[in-house]
């Protein structure tokens, strides 16, 4: 579903990659102009030579390497854990439906199975809206049995409510003799797993990296770039602005990506396509019970976020 | 519940972030004055030139990079594991209540379910007070059935006591025929999980990083900053104090954050909001059994620690 | 099955290792010629001296170390996780067949066991074709019972379909009294594991590293190599082209390997031999039920991808 | 139980931390005297100038950063895994006793429960003595039923023997109808966990880091420190001994801590307080069954190792 | 069983550690002679001065740090995972025997228990021979019941065959009413674990690090060492050969250890003592059922590999 980007070594050098460069352009232009001024006055200021040389930049550089490396790893770990959790949601949804089909004696076309499937699908959408602080009602109304939807409207934390509905479905099947105690426990284990997924997403969402890290890193990077032309002008001369902007570009872009990945459930360009993943769940589960899958046009608009 | 901080690149350069800077200010001011004195006497001391240059600072720098990188990663891992454990507590509390509701034949409005819920909620508060060495009695009295509270008063390690009460509740339900052996085992697995959470928190709390690491790092960082003006004064001149203080600020602030994160259950600004998490547990569990949720005013005061 | 490559320290210095060098050769030749031109004009350009020295290369170098280190670790983790998942598939297939043999009362020569085995084997091939976007029909037709194969033809996501067939097989065995509820649950746990494997492979396959990382790294590496001769020519003279090409070779080759490992399920030289692993599964499972193993000639052609 | 050390930034600069400095003092003094001699002869040796400058120290430094960073991370991982295993032992002991109390129909004051508790407590002490190569008999005699103790005396590997006694206890309870098959399996899962803890401790204890790593690192660090005064004397003059000793102190101390942490079950100052953890287990388990807890004086002597 | 090596700081400086140094000696001697020649001609070649200085070595050094750090971490992870897997085999063998003793109603002296034990022990030896490509027959004949041994002779992949024998043993016990369904499932879970161990060892064994990594690293390290004397001769003079050989020694030795650890199941000096671990399993299991443990003389010859 997700298309791989072109990877030609020459092409990649000059591609205008839309996600980070545009927002950096004004800042980099500012820095370019500033570097040119520094070069023109040759590092002097009101007849006073700015006594900077490359030496302290190695010291700065160490601090930046420390911060940026740590920040980036921590952010990417959050991003990748978020991806794993949504992957686990796809896996777990399939497992639960498989169990509903093979551990109970319900027919795969029975209304009970359809109800279970619809709640499972709604669960994914409810989690998405929860994480993006958007209104889940439109998505839930389309999918949930109307009786369940009505009750869901007044609930603040919808994923937990829907999970409880799934548990109740299993309890009812047990009372009606459609599943035995062992089967119930096997499904209960997967419901536990569902709890763990919701909890993991909440954790990533509600606990950002300590803010102080971000502030410290940000200042170090930007002040580094601001002082850079003073340090390079003596040895590089007219090449200073080009080299300065290029070094600044890599550091600042790196910081910006790390910042986007930190909160992977948003709608920024480098965030996770959780909308597409909801659709994947809907498609696979519908296919498993022989329901019509969502139509392509509906799919189109979703694919990128 | 937790609000994201503003992230504007320009704004972040000058924000006065309250958590670390204030405690560092006196030390940084001291260093500023000291650097100015060094510049004024131009690196001489009683007519004797201090023969320092940037060369040994690269060697120092390596040692600092080694220590600070290691220390920071280890501290952040502790912080993030602490967060995971409390996240698991939220997850596990919900799972246990879901099991009490769907694996037993108790009505969701029965006194037994209310008792189980109240012990689960009290468990979270008891763990919080345990980790912060504060008195749990006020919080437990409000939530526990008075008979259980009375017995809890003489107990040293309250979370284990309350967990044992939960196990007894399940045992009683089994003896009364409200849950079968399989259901009991499924709940027992989640009680095991509860033990693992308590044990994990205790582990982080009772085993700090080896103290020697902290002392070594501290000395390296502070002596580095103290020698820095001597090393920079020859090449940077009057810029020395500014650059010195800025480099010192990044290193010292980094060490300070690492120190705060090391023990994530305290009440320092960068510690985990475990009080808010207790309230989250209370709110979700109350919602699940249709009890009134804690009122907003009560919530207000808690949100930050 | 996989042969270890020769490891003589002298031999390894001059081996022509076919996987990466050939594709890099044109670019490195280009760089060699370019460096020679730079040396010949001694870093001047239209009578204007290019004022580059080694100093800014340390700064560049830091950025490269940051990116390349991170990119390489992330790619290798993906590669190794992919390997673990396929290893888990081998393990899980064996476990499921062992359970079918020891937890049910079917005879090991019965048609039911053969059917179960054939679906398990087909499952691995279906996953391979899914990950490589190739047509699974030839492999499935050879292995699946024709009735199952017919139904599989219209299915988009075949591994899930086949897994569901396995679950149905267990359900049927339960209804026929060949396995008890406890045995069914034990097999269900391994079917959950199968879901996790499919989901993990999908995750790695469908979520590449954020594209922006690759672009940034690529640019930093190539521009670094392009500027390198200017920076070295003053101090190294006629040695510049050799040193330049050698440094460029290590960085560019490192980036290229990282790029190949990022998507481990393809057919590039450093990708995983998942075809060979399908064959391993087929061979072991056939041996376990006393079926003839696939003939060596068939094996030959597969061994490398 | 474990008291946090004082953390005042000024105090920490001058604290005499007893665990590492004393053993390093003779070596550092030696280096100080050696550096002074080097300064006095100004880097000459029999009228021959030692031609060292800071340049090769950056190369050395890279090697040290590589080794020391790796060594330290690997050692700390071993230390922390050891801590996790003992934490898991505390958790698992509590869980097993909770299960013995809530899954069986034994009264909490019955001799069977007391016997089970005493074996669990003895298990922790047996593991401690196993890991420290000390004689377990005094500790076991005090705690075990005399009949079990007699049989334990001839056994080489006592933790496995005691674990088997626990399994037998459960088997007997099953045969007497005090626990059902499901309960037995739940306890068996925790006995598996106990095996994993013993095995993990054995693994860390019996497989040190490859010895060659230690030797290589040791040589690199000490030769680096020995050459350092030659490299610094030209630029630093009379400051050389101070700077040399300080840099040496950080590197050598870092290596020493890593060495201590590598084997975390010993009795060196930075090792794990496993004696205190045995006592924690004894205290909590005794409290759970209403037995008198070990008296404070006994506790006092144990707290530090 | 494994004795700790002596750790005296002075002693460690001069110890002749046999595992790596001997194989490196010829290469290092070659480099020493080569460096002396370079010094003698003072870096000139046919009257032409080789224009190398320390500057490009920092760039080289970055590449080496990148490769060597990554390679070493990846190799050590493989080594340590291999160790964990064999540790898990020890743990799992004990757990399976404990279950055979406590979950079945067989007497601990019955022939069935002895048969089960012998297959478990043979399993470890079969895995060892599988990983070392040696003939398992001598070890298996001594331990297996002759009927099982005969059938094992024609099997290619013996560990899986023996594991299947264990599963059959449990199935037979179930059919004879010696174990219930729940007990069978508990043992089945540990048999799954056994599969995971075999699969993990196979994975490490059959998938080395991508070969290209090794080649690239090897070249970078050796060419670095070859160029080193040219870069140092101007500043270090007659000290060049000593410093060169020492730096080369650390880098080359580091690469050599990483190479040995990559495949931990071989018989090189730094590989895992899996023969000793087979013996540990044999000893502990024999002790558990009261069989005579293998005699010391037999033990002697095994202890080192």
UniProtKB/TrEMBL annotation, chains A, B, C, D, E:
Membrane topology (UniProt): Multi-pass membrane protein
Transmembrane annotation, as ranges: 12-38, 50-70
Pfam families on file: Bestrophin_2
InterPro entries in the record: YneE/VCCN1/2-like
Keywords: Cell membrane, Ion transport, Membrane, Transmembrane, Transmembrane helix, Transport
Top-level taxon of the source organism: Bacteria
Principal localisation: membrane
Localization (cell): Cell membrane
Family to which this protein belongs: Belongs to the anion channel-forming bestrophin (TC 1.A.46) family.
Protein name listed in UniProt: Bestrophin family ion channel
Protein's organism: Flectobacillus roseus
């Amino acid at each position: 579903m997700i298309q791989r980007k072109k990877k030609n070594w020459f092409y990649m050098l000059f591609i205008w990659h839309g996600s980070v460069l545009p927002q950096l352009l004004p800042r980099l232009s500012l820095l370019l102009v500033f570097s040119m001024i520094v070069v023109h006055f040759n590092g002097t200021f009101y007849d006073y030579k700015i006594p900077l040389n490359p030496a302290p930049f190695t010291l700065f550089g160490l601090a930046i390497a420390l911060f940026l490396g740590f920040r980036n790893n921590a952010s990417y770990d959050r991003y990748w854990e978020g991806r794993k959790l949504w992957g686990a949601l796809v896996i777990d949804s399939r497992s639960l439906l498989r169990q509903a089909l093979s551990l109970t004696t319900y027919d795969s076309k029975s209304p009970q199975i359809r109800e279970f499937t619809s709640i499972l699908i709604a669960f994914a959408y409810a989690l998405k809206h929860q994480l993006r602080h958007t209104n889940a009602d439109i998505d839930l109304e389309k999918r949930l049995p109307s009786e369940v939807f009505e009750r869901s409207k007044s609930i603040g934390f919808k994923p937990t409510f829907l999970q409880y509905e799934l548990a109740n479905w299993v309890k009812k099947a047990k009372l009606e003799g459609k599943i035995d105690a062992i089967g119930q426990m096997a499904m209960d284990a997967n419901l536990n797993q569902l709890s763990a997924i919701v909890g993991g997403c909440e954790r990533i969402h509600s606990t950002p990296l300590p803010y102080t890290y971000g502030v410290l890193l940000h200042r170090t990077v930007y002040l580094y770039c601001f002082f850079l032309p003073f340090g390079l002008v003596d040895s590089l001369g007219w090449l200073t602005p080009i080299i300065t902007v290029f070094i600044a570009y890599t550091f600042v872009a790196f910081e910006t990506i790390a910042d986007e990945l930190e909160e992977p459930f948003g709608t920024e360009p480098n965030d996770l396509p959780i909308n597409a993943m909801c659709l994947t769940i809907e498609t696979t589960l519908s296919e498993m019970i022989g329901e019509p899958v969502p139509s392509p046009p509906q799919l189109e608009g979703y694919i990128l976020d």
